[in-house]
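User: Here's a chain of 276 residues. Predict its fold as tokens.
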Amino acid sequence: MSEKTEVIRSKIWQEVAEPDNPFAAATCYCSGYDVYGEMLGNARWIEFLYLLFKRERPNHSQAQLLESLAVALANPGPRDPAVHAAMAAGVGGSTHASCLMAALAVGAGAYGGAREVLIAMEAWQACGQNVEAWRERLTHPPGEERIDVWLPIEHPPGFDPHGASCATPVRQTLALLAKLSPGLALPWLEAERTALEAIADCPLALSGVAAAALIDLGFSPAQGEMLYLLLRLPGAAAHALEQEELGFRNFPFFGAGLTVANDPAQRHEHPTGAPT
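Assistant: Prediction complete.
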């Protein structure tokens, strides 16, 4: 009987084993590129990231666009629910891995999270650069085809349901990415932003800009969802570590709003000696 050979099937990654150890790789290829023999020291991290997902090398415009998007998304800031979750985990003494998992769990949803980006990218695939198609999509969103773990989104995807006007960082990011983009979505979004905001009855959000950028880079909605989760983790990690050092007494949220009912430290002694 011939011995069965186990095969790892991947178009992304191939390995050549060391002569003296079949469990250690001597050479690693990512979509045909020798990672440690050729790419290391020559390729930028953002180029390698694109290669992993797309299985082809990005051109200059694609690499520049993805790198600028990564900078824009790297730190959503302490007010972002995903970063806030990581901060709360850090100040509460959770493990560092738990801080990142908290950020991923909260940042995965349909309110400013990765699921919203996926839904917005699906809208781009369906509507393209057609204002009337967007009007129909935003005012009469399609229902879910099957029961999912995700609840139906409750606002136009890619827009801020609580915003008063389009935030300055969103406009700045859109303006830069539209100049860099080799695609059609970002320039069209910049030109039609106010019209789309009027249809949606709320301002454009950074998740909407990210969705358009990921479409112009040729990623699928599933790939975009993954990348959005990944690219927002650096800020969550940094803020979690900072809060761990500062301690819970310096946590920036809710400090003035927390009161202890019947706090023994606040009791006053009655003249008879009995507490009031």
